[in-house]
Amino acid sequence: MTHAIGRHDSRGFLSIAAPFFISLGLFLFSIFIPPLGILSPVPLYYSLVTHGQKTGLLTIALCSLAILAITGERDALFFLVFCGLMAVVLAESFKRRACLRSAIGAATLAPLIAGAIIALAINIFSDTGILKVLDNNASEAIAAITESYKSAGADPQLVDWVERNSDMLKDVVGRIFFGMTAVSLFFTVIINCLIIKILSLRFGWGAHFTDDSLANFRTPEYLVWPAIAGGIFVLLIGGAWATAGINLLLITGAIYLIQGVAITHHFFLRSNLPIILKAIGYFLLFSQPPLLLAVCCLGLADVWANFRKIEAGNG
C-alpha cells in the first residue's frame, strides 16, 4: 500500500483510495498499537497535496464516516478535528510555501483551538459538562495506569501510592490537561512532518518542506516572554494563575526542548564522532529525564547565547 502511495503521478483509483484505507487503518489499529494513530494525518496530507483539496477533503470525510460507523461519534469527531484538520493545515501551509516553523505552529494551534471550541460547546449545552468529562477521563486513565502497574509486576508500594493518591493525581491531570494536549499535538505535528519528509524523499513526491533542517531550528525570540510569565504565575501569584503558569511552562518547555535538541544535533553534525557514538548520545538524551531537562534549558539559553550564530529571523 505504501508503494501505491509512492506513485504520486498516478491518478488511478488505487492511488486515490490508498490514503483512505491507510489513514483509517492506522487510526483503528491504534487501539492495539497506540503510536500508530498519530501517523493518520500523513496519508491525508498526501491526498490533499497530490490529488487536490476536493479529493483530500472527501478522503477525510469518508474516513470520519467510517470511524463513526465502526467505533462511534466520539472517535469520529476526534479524527476529524485532530487528524483531518492537522493534515489540512499542513497541506495548505505547503501550498502557500510557508516555512516549516509556521506550518508546525499553525497545525498545532488549529486543532487545539477547534478542540477548545468543542469543549466549550459541550460545557454549555451538555448536562454532563466538560469538567465532569475530564474528571471521568482522568479517573479512567489513572485506573488504567494502576492496572498496567499491577500486570507488569510493579512495586506494590508504588501501586498502593497511586491508589491512595488517585484524587490528587486526578486534580493534577485536570490542571495540566490543556498544556499536555498542546504538547502532544506539537510533537505529533513534528513526527508527521518527519515521516512526510522521509516518504517524500523516498518516493519522490516533492511534498515536503524544504527549510526543515533540524540543526537550524530556532524559536521566535518573543516566546521567552510566555515562559517568563509562566514562571511568575507559578512562583509569585498562585491560585488559578499558577495553573495557567504551569500550562504555559509545559508548552514553552516543549518548544525549547526541540530547540535544545536542534543545538545538540548541530554540534553532532559538526563533530567527527563515529555514528555509533552519536547514536548512543541520542539514546541517552531521550532516555534520561535529567538530560532532557538540561537540553530544554540549553534551548532557552540559546535565546541570549545564540550558540549556532544564527541570524535573527532565520531557522
Description:
By secondary structure, the protein is an all-alpha fold. The protein has a domain at 213-315. Helix content is 78%, strand content 0%. Helix 3 (41-51) packs across helix 5, helix 5 (73-95) runs antiparallel to helix 6 and helix 7 (130-151) packs antiparallel against helix 8 (156-164). The longest helix has 38 residues, at 166-203. The two termini are 35 Å apart.
What can be said about this structure in brief?
The chain is mainly alpha-helical and 315 residues long. It has helices spanning 2-6, 13-29, 41-51, 53-70, 73-95, 100-125, 130-151, 156-164, 166-203, 224-237, 239-270, 275-287, 289-305. It starts with a helix and ends in a 10-residue tail after the last helix.
Shape: globular
Helix content: over 70%
Give the end-to-end Cα distance, rounded to a whole number of Å.
35 Å
Structural class: mainly alpha
Number of helices: 13
Query: How much strand content do the residues show?
Result: under 5%
Keywords:
disordered N terminus; single chain; mainly alpha; 315 residues
Secondary-structure blueprint of this entry?
Elements: H1 2-6, H2 13-29, H3 41-51, H4 53-70, H5 73-95, H6 100-125, H7 130-151, H8 156-164, H9 166-203, H10 224-237, H11 239-270, H12 275-287, H13 289-305
